Amino acid sequence: MANLLVLGTQWGDEGKGKIVDLLTPAFDVVARYQGGHNAGHTVYVSGKKIVLHLIPSGILRPGTLCVIGNGLVISPAAFFKETSDLEAQGVDVDPSRIAVSRSAHLIMPWHPLVERVSEELRGEKKIGTTCRGIGPAYEDKAARLGIRAGDLADLRVLREKIEENVAAKGRVFATFGLPPIDAESVYREYAGWGEKFGPYLQDVSELLHERMKRGDKVLFEGAQGALLDLDHGTYPFVTSSSSTAGGASTGLGVGPKAIHGVLGITKAYTTRVGSGPFPTELHDERGRTIAARGDEFGATTGRPRRCGWFDAVAVRYACRVNGVDRIALTKPDVLGGIGDISVCTGYRYKGAVLKSFPPETWALEKVVPEYRTFAGWPDSLHGAADPESLPRAFADYVRALEDLVETRVAVISTGVERAETVLIESELSGLLDLDRIRRGRGA
Ligand code: GDP
Fold first, then answer.
1. What is the pLDDT of residue 301?
2. Residues designated catalytic
3. pTM, rounded to two decimals
4. Cβ distance 401 to 365 under 8 Å?
5. H-type helices in 62-215, by residue range?
6. Which of 10, 20, 412, 416 to mutate to test the pocket of ligand 1 (most atoms within 8 A of CB)?
7. Is residue 6 a contact partner of residue 322, using CB atoms and an 8 Å limit?
8. Is 60 exceeded by the pLDDT of residue 214?
9. Relative to the CA of 413, which ligand 1 atom is closest?
10. Which atom from ligand 1 is nearest to the alpha carbon of 14?
11. What is the mean pLDDT of the chain?
């Protein structure tokens, strides 16, 4: 297989950053297709912690081209903060390494303000967004009011679009009690960004097409979990974009046949940030133990993540919606030594057991999980890299998960570092070039 799509199968924070970084040596291009700087991937390279928000995790491997697709919404300020933070850590962020789609929408100064007020107005029903303006930027895209990165290239067009937006939003701002927007100062700010941004902006669809034509391999990077997808997630407690596999096609301008395989990143337990239903959530000491051991605090916001048992109903659903070929199981080391481990195998609802994930979020709020309990495994799983060294109880757990989610596990991550990974070579061989991964693993 040539091109691989990598995405999270839960509510995000599955460890996509680590796995994308690990697999990047088998690819020439890493292309991200949705979201904004609300995403946060923490990657460790030889003990050094690097946090990525907008830029694909492939940037940590020299020589890889990183692509930001039209499916993203971009805050120029966040983009340049990230490039300068990366540069300070010795990462090459030259425009020859990063291509940003000219069709990507821009986050404008009014977007975070609107989001904060609309979250406040929702009161108890708030979504729990990061208030970085991402949702409102996608709203403007759908309302056909959005300003795109390519608009920065023509100052007359940019001015016109800013004025059009300011006129359209004046009344909304007054209703919300927000101060009026000064179109001229927004124009000056974004004209400045335009000059800096120019060298990064490209026709990404054409660039990918040319690269694939010459035989380059592309890793498509999903930045948020599948259960946060606007259509297939737990609506309305979702993000505003298509984080599922189909989003790669629309979010980068590539045909679906360019995606040859799908790897689902799946955490050995479940976490969720913000509001929304979470059937297997643990409200007791065990939840707090998992959170502490797994360091479950948001990379972008520092918010504590809600923690619970593995939900096989949810992951099986995510595997179906995304056509997941293989799973990369992350963070099972976090559960080592905590005793018995439960897995949700079905949902009880109105006297029956649902075997599939209900599309109605209000029903998901009422389901009672049915659990199967497994003997736990020792702490020694942490850092394991050899399939033969896996504790017996853990191997049994993996077999059971595979049956429950109807998908085989190809990678087991046992720690934050690249080398702390078990590669199940027989399961990976059809998906990517293993020799290139082996060479990059120790790097
Ligand atoms: P992402 O957004 O899906 O990339 O996930 P985050 O970066 O938000 O959260 C994953 C966290 O878990 C990061 O701090 C990773 O360094 C860490 N991590 C990834 N894989 C493993 C693993 O197998 N074991 C442990 N203990 N930590 C891991």
1. 67
2. 13, 41
3. 0.94
4. no
5. 76-88, 110-122, 134-142, 155-176, 183-197, 204-213
6. 416
7. no
8. yes
9. 23
10. 3
11. 92
